Amino acid sequence: MTESSGQRHGSVSIGEALAAIRAEVANSRLGEAFSSIGAVQLGLQPNALELTFRLVVETHADSPRFVVTDGRTPGAHTLKVTLGPPPPAPRAGDHVEAVATPPVPPPPGPDATTVDGPHAEVIKLYEDLLADHDRMLGPLHRTTLDAAANLAGALCDAGQLEEAVNLYERVLLDNENTFGAQDGGTLLVRSALARVYRDAQRFDEAIAQYRRAAADYETGFGGDHPNTLSAQHNLAFAYYKAGQLDDSILLFDKVLADSTRVSGPDNESTLITLLGLSGALRAAGRLEEAITYDEHILAVRTRTLGPEHEDTLLAAINLGDDRAAIGRHDEALGILEETLAGAERALGPHSLAAQSARTSLAFGYDQVGRIAEAIGMYTLIVSDREYHYGHDHLNTLVACANLASVCTTAQRYDDAIALYSRVVAGRERQLGSGHTLTITAREGLAFAKAAALRRFPGGGPVTHR
Question: What is d(CA 432, CA 426) in angstroms, rounded to the nearest whole number?
Answer without folding.
Answer: 9
